[in-house]
Write a structure and sequence with these properties.
heterodimer; A: 132 residues; mainly beta; six-stranded parallel β-barrel; 6% helix; globular; B: 214 residues; alpha/beta; Rossmann fold
Chain lengths: 132, 214
């Protein structure tokens, strides 16, 4: 499943299949059992929860993953990371904290509000998009 | 502080210069303090580690695997670079202490302070040292790498942990800046209140010091 460059979603995005985002999302993204790829053109201002998260674009917000977070060389993340494994490539930009105490799944379950490194833009109460 | 900086960069210049591979040099150093730093933290459950340099994925993976720690990345190079580009050296001290103070007082178990102090004047360096002392919890440790050679140039050094006892030093292009060299005694005085556990001069003329908060 792909969300293209021209797509803007404000609200909650959840689903049960792997997803690649190239557009903009503000709000919350939840793919508990799946791979989320944030493509090179994507701009995300959201709390992100997934099994595995690959970041090639920009994310402002906290990311929790049950298995792994992978920030690629052009990826930009300002927010806190929680996952058992975190990989950050040379050239990636990151500001925030990293919790690798196997806390990704725990953080998802608790759905706590980890302190963002920078305050994200307030979430709009726009329409809910559900990818299934 | 303006003498620290070469004002060749104009306000609003784009980000860091291109990095031709030929300008990147790497050396490998043997560390005596790093094993003690790791040992001090490995006795604790889920220690909190504060890294003051640009994020290095290898280090994140290393400390995550080795210590199961939580890491806070507060890249002070960003603030130093911004102060240079904006020509606002007077703002630097506030910027740095603000970033460090994101951590609560007495909350941090370990600090990685690598290639930071050489770009600061004495006042900023003392204030940053005081802030770091404040965020460390009792028995907390600070691992510092301080250049001992004053020089002008457009490079910075990234330190990449290879093992408990070895660190790769990568010199890479950066903004034009003058590097200060503080005497060992002066560094110790800046961190007054912390105990020096280990202090050794590495082969690449970097002073490696391990401090512990009593």
């Amino acid at each position: 499943m792909n969300i293209g460059k021209s797509v803007i979603i404000k609200g909650e995005l959840s689903g049960s299949e792997d997803l690649t985002i190239e557009g903009q999302v503000e709000g919350k993204i939840e793919l508990r059992q799946n791979l989320l790829t944030i493509g090179p053109n994507a701009k995300i201002k959201a709390q992100v929860f997934a099994k595995t998260v690959v970041v090639e674009g920009q994310v402002h917000g906290n990311i929790s993953a049950g298995e792994r977070i992978d920030i690629r060389d052009k990826g930009v993340v300002e927010g806190n990371l929680a996952a058992p494994r975190v990989a950050i490539a040379d050239g990636a930009h990151f500001r925030g904290s990293i919790d690798m105490q196997g806390g990704g799944a725990k953080a998802i379950d608790n759905a706590a509000e980890p302190r963002p490194a920078s305050t994200p833009t307030p979430i709009s109460s726009g329409p809910t998009a559900v990818a299934r | 502080m303006s003498r620290l900086f070469h004002w060749t960069a104009k306000k609003g210049d784009s980000a860091a210069p291109e990095r031709p591979a030929s300008l990147i040099t790497e050396t490998l150093s043997t560390s005596r303090a790093l094993p003690k730093f790791i040992s001090a933290l490995s006795h604790q459950s889920a220690p909190l580690l504060l890294d003051l340099g640009p994020v290095v994925g290898t280090n994140v993976s290393f400390f995550g695997d080795r210590l199961g720690c939580k890491m806070m990345i507060e890249d002070l190079h960003e603030e130093i670079e911004a102060a240079i580009r904006e020509r606002t050296p007077e703002s630097l001290s506030g910027r740095l202490t603000s970033r460090v103070s994101d951590a609560a007082a007495g909350s941090v178990d370990g600090v990685l302070c690598w290639d930071i102090f050489n770009y600061l004047d004495r006042t900023s360096a003392r204030q940053l040292a005081a802030s770091l002392r404040a965020v460390l919890r009792p028995k907390g440790v600070l691992h510092g790498l301080f250049g001992t050679v004053a020089q002008s140039g457009a490079t910075r050094t990234r330190f990449i942990v290879q093992s408990d006892t070895s660190v790769k030093c990568r010199t890479e292009p950066w903004v034009p800046v003058t590097r200060q060299a503080f005497q060992t005694g002066e560094i110790t005085r800046m961190f007054e209140g912390l105990t020096v556990v280990e202090s050794v001069l590495l082969q690449n003329q970097t002073r490696e010091t391990l401090f512990r908060k009593p």
